[in-house]
């Protein structure tokens, strides 16, 4: 079943990036939202269930199982972790199905005192994101009956690190900056990490940065006029096999190299005639927050966030319930050494050198203007995190001379 779960979770990510990534720096985790929506779908009745099913992409009869399978995959992985937390107000009558559907270690109780509950839930966030995030993103109110949350963390080192270098782009929106960007450079004879995806939004250049663990990060560059959301959605779909990708030595053919945004095929003096790949990108450190109820239709939350005297989730409790908050906090950092990220998603429920002697070909890939990134769980293909880098970090003033 996990292949189906990965497919529908990635489809949610593709829909979300089209909506959310419109030009500024963003980061989001569809994999963090999807299990919560799947649990709500399995517990819902009426029109709300149909809307949640459209967002989740699985039949309600198996949605809760799918949520547990996705979280189990993350918990077993290396370099990535996932946790589920479910808290109900003490004394709230719970349906036996809900008690059985939620993993035992994930359950807890709320006292009804926002200060006491805040400290406990913030501690849970800090533990399960390795300290990268420290606060449960939803507000805790006296009338909060349920909080459902996922925490996702990523911490991997690159198999092949980058070199820190100052970068001064000569063209594009990052040209003419007062200080050079904090660039990252890497090269070698392995051409396979570079790919050209042909998508409905146009050609995309994709570079796979392989982690030591179960997580890889893909850098994604489209034509300059291509909308960020379309670049990211096209990359998600290409990795899922929906659009063709040509990679490695195939890009040494000049017509293909010319089609790849940001890529040049050049000839340089060298002792070694073996073709080389040279990649330039930038460091980034992004923090983002998303209000899921700002676009309730995207997540199937339109009906279940409205008051109804009969409630929407009879399989949770006989008390009428509605979703009153949905928030995700994200942090992602890409450096010369590796990638670290965390996402917490919460829903609250309330009532109501020597001279060269020869030449070689070099595929020169420059991610020196706004680009996207995807963090992907290698064993399953699950897209853990997606984002857009609108501005690079500055080269540190104390990092030595600028050349």
UniProtKB/TrEMBL annotation:
SUPFAM superfamilies: Serpins. InterPro entries: Serpin_sf, Serpin_sf_1. Residues 169-191 are annotated as: Disordered. This is Serpin domain-containing protein. The lineage of its organism: Bacteria, Bacillati, Actinomycetota, Actinomycetes, Streptosporangiales.
């Amino acid at each position: 079943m996990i292949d189906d779960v990965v497919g529908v979770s990635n489809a949610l990510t593709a829909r979300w990036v089209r909506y959310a990534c419109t030009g500024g720096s963003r980061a989001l985790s569809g994999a963090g939202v999807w299990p919560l929506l799947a649990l709500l779908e399995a517990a819902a009745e009426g029109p709300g269930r149909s809307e949640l099913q459209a967002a989740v992409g699985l039949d309600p009869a198996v949605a809760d199982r799918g949520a547990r399978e996705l979280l189990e995959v993350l918990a077993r992985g290396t370099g990535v972790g996932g946790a589920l937390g479910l808290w109900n107000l003490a004394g709230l009558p719970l349906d036996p199905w809900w008690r059985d559907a939620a993993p035992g270690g994930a359950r807890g109780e709320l006292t009804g005192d926002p200060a006491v509950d805040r400290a406990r839930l913030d501690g849970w966030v800090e533990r399960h994101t390795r300290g990268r995030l420290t606060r449960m993103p939803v507000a805790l109110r006296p009338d909060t009956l349920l909080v459902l949350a996922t925490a996702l963390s990523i911490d991997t080192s690159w198999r092949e690190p980058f070199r820190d270098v100052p970068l001064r782009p000569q063209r594009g929106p990052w040209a003419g900056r007062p200080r050079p960007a904090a660039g990252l450079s890497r090269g070698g004879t392995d051409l396979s990490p570079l790919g050209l995806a042909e998508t409905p939004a146009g050609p995309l250049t994709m570079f796979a940065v392989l982690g030591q663990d179960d997580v890889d990060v893909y850098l994604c560059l489209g034509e300059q006029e291509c909308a960020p959301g379309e670049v990211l959605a096209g990359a998600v779909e290409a990795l899922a096999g929906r659009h063709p990708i040509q990679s490695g030595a195939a890009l040494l053919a000049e017509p293909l190299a010319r089609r790849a945004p940001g890529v040049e095929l050049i000839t340089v003096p060298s002792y070694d005639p073996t073709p080389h790949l040279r990649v330039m990108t930038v460091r980034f450190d992004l923090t983002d927050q998303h209000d899921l109820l700002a676009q309730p239709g995207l997540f199937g939350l339109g009906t279940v966030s409205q008051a109804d005297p009969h409630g929407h989730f009879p399989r949770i409790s006989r008390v009428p319930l509605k979703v009153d908050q949905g928030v995700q906090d994200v942090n992602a950092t890409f450096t010369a050494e590796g990638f670290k990220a965390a996402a917490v998603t919460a829903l609250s429920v309330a009532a109501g050198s020597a001279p060269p002697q020869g030449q070689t070909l070099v595929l020169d890939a420059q991610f020196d203007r706004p680009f996207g990134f995807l963090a992907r769980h290698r064993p399953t293909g699950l897209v853990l995190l997606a984002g857009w880098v609108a501005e690079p970090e500055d080269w540190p003033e104390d990092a030595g001379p600028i050349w």
